[in-house]
Each structure stands twice: as C-alpha cells, then as structure tokens.
Design goal:
Layout: E1 4-8, H1 24-32, H2 67-77, E2 84-87, H3 101-119, E3 126-131, H4 137-147, E4 153-159, H5 172-181, E5 185-188, H6 208-213, H7 216-228, H8 231-234, E6 240-243, H9 250-264, H10 275-282, E7 283-286, H11 296-304, H12 308-311, E8 312-313, H13 336-347, H14 353-360
Parallel strand pairs: 1-2, 2-3, 3-4, 4-5, 5-6, 6-7, 7-8
Helix pairs in contact: 4-5
Length: about 350
C-alpha cells in the first residue's frame, strides 16, 4: 500500500542548530536573549499549561543530533514502510507567538534553511513544509516566494494558534503567495500563548489533556472563516489542510453552516456554493487524532457525512505521545488506499504520481 504520512515531526536536540542560519544580529538574540527553558530552548510566548509527560513517546530518546533521523528511520519510516513523510517541524511553529515579528521571521527563515540543508538530503522519502510566522503576512509571503520553487517543498505551514481567524483579509497575502507557487496552506495544532489567542474560546484551560480534547475549537473557527471570507472564491485552486485537530466535528459544523447560509446568504454575496461544497472541494483533514468511540461504526457513519473517503489524509504525528500507527488506523477498510496515500496526491502536487501508481499496483 502506498503511504503518505502528512505529519512527521523532525526534532532537534537544541534550537542552536539554527545558529549557522541566522544573521549575527539575530544569532545574538538566540544565544543571549531571555526565553523559557535552558540554553538551546526555542524562544516563544509560553502556553498556560504543561504536558505532564513531555510530548514525545517514551521509547524515542535521541542522544545526538543524528539520532533524530536514525531513530525515525528505524522506528517509523522502515518499520511501517512509509513511502512519503511530510516534515512538519515542531518548536518552530511557536514562532507565531512572539511579539517581535522581525525575530519570528528570522527564526522561521533559519529553520527552513536548516530543514532543507540537514533533513531533506537524508532520505528521499522526505518532503518539506515551509514554516511561516503569520503575524507578518507580507514577511510570510516573501518566505513562501523565496523557497516555494524548491522541488521537495510541498506545503506552507503555520500554527493553528493565531491572532485572528485565518480567513481574515489580513492573511490573504499568504494565500496569494501560495497560489502563485502552487502550494497548499496548512495549519497544525499549537502556537497558543504569547501574542496569539487562547486555545479555548471561553478562556484559558488548566490542564493539557483538557486542552487537547478541545483542540478542535480554533480549527472550527479557521475553517468557517476561510469559507465565509471567500478565500476559496478568490483562490479556487487553494487547498487548506487542517492537521491534528480531530475530524468528527466537521459534519455537524457543515450542517449548521449550510442551514445558516441558506437563510442569511445576503451577508456574503461573494459565495457561489454551499459552505459544505467549499469544504469538500478545498479543505482536507489529517486523521490524527481520530476520535475513538466504543463502537467504531459510530465514527464511520460520521465520517461518511464529510466524504471522509476523499477528504481525509493519513497522519501519524510521529514521535508524539498520541502517535497513530498506519497499521492501526480506525477507518473503513475500503477507504484505506485513498486515505493512506492517494488523496494526498491531489493536494501535494510535487509528490510523484508514477511512484504511487506503481506501489498501489
């Protein structure tokens, strides 16, 4: 089976791997500046809660910089016969929480160069994401245009913690750049704290598990905002990928949106289709973390209402604590070829289809 894993976190042992890629001025910031954690931590405005066990699986403990790849190769890429692994970074997503957007831009630019130099050449299964800091959309657009032509870059990625819902025209320079270079725009759970809004709509949470269970809230807001602000009328070929935000909420949200739109459509005359039709055409959702009811058929019935066979993309979230193995994904068996890999080919145009076709055959 052809497998595209759309959420593989490429860790580092220390944020100081970025030093060779920073200009002297920003290098001094990273070495000498105040930040949460010890020397080598990545600077960010910290979230209000802390994970009680750390984010990584306990069996993955790299001791050297090279271990980050070697352990991934042994315990994930080779073990599960992954064909394509889309790298989604980790701490660099938190750059969006910094008040100093010049510094945030410098950090994500350094990460992108490090990822291209250090990670992509290590394994021909790797594809990269351009990490952006959306607090400066014009700076983000410049970074997309700087690297968007790289043959192994397949998407633009930001945190789902943000200052405004992503459909706001403030962010449209990002989508203009994405459309120009032909890349999807993706958001990944994280980036709460600092200048960004709380993860939860009604106020800050106290515990990590409480927050994790509610991680869909910002994603719901972004999905509705992208549709209602007409992003997909303005950029009809743009794919919006929602990573690590759950999926079972999608059908009920679309039911509610379609009903309200039919009654109140004069507010947004630029929309030509039902919200659910934009969702099916332009938005894709990663599987991890897939909800786990006691009777899995309850989940499958829900997923059928969002056309899950065609709108879901497999993600493992390696090496995080809630990792989903490709062999243990609770989706209908008839959907596996499409969800595990073939759906990704429609979104990530630079993944070579001939290799996929050969593998499926």
């Amino acid at each position: 089976m052809f497998i595209v894993d759309t959420d593989v976190h490429n860790y580092w042992s220390s944020a100081e791997v970025l030093l060779p890629y920073l200009e002297p001025y920003w290098r001094d910031f990273l070495v000498r500046g105040e930040k949460p954690g010890p020397r080598g931590s990545f600077p960010h405005g910290h979230r209000p809660w802390l994970h009680p066990e750390g984010f990584s699986r306990h069996d993955i403990r790299p001791e050297t910089e090279d271990d980050n790849y070697l352990i991934m190769k042994e315990k994930h890429l080779d073990l599960y016969d992954i064909d394509v692994a889309i790298l989604t970074a980790d701490e660099p997503l938190e750059a969006s929480t910094l008040a100093n957007y010049h510094y945030a831009n410098a950090l994500v630019k350094a990460y992108n160069d490090y990822m291209i130099d250090w990670w992509l050449p290590k394994d021909n299964r790797f594809k990269g994401s351009i990490i952006i800091s959306p607090t400066d959309p014009h700076g983000a657009a410049a970074e997309i245009r700087r690297l968007g032509g790289h043959k192994d870059i397949v998407q633009v990625l930001a945190s789902h913690g943000s200052q405004r819902p992503y459909g706001d025209p403030f962010y449209h320079p990002i989508y203009e750049a994405c459309a120009e270079v032909g890349l999807p725009f993706a958001i990944h759970f994280g980036g709460q704290g600092g200048v960004n809004h709380n993860a939860i709509a009604s106020g800050p949470t106290a515990y990590y598990w409480e927050t994790h269970a509610l991680l869909a809230q910002p994603a719901m807001t972004h999905v509705v905002s992208m549709i209602s602000n007409g992003v997909f009328e303005k950029y009809p070929d743009l794919y919006f990928v929602v990573i690590e935000c759950g999926v079972s909420w999608v059908p009920s949200l679309m039911w509610r949106l379609d009903a309200n739109f039919k009654a109140l459509r004069k507010e947004t005359p630029w929309l030509k289709m039902l919200p659910s039709e934009y969702c099916r055409r332009n938005i894709r959702f990663s599987t991890q973390p897939l909800e786990q009811p006691q009777n899995v058929r309850h989940l499958w019935e829900t997923l059928e209402h969002m056309d899950g066979q065609n709108t879901l993309l497999f993600a493992s979230d390696y090496p995080h604590w809630d990792f989903d193995a490709p062999t243990n994904l609770h989706i209908p068996p008839a959907w596996r070829d499409k969800v595990m890999g073939l759906n990704a080919l429609e979104v990530y145009k630079r993944i070579e289809a001939p290799a996929a076709a050969a593998r499926v055959a």
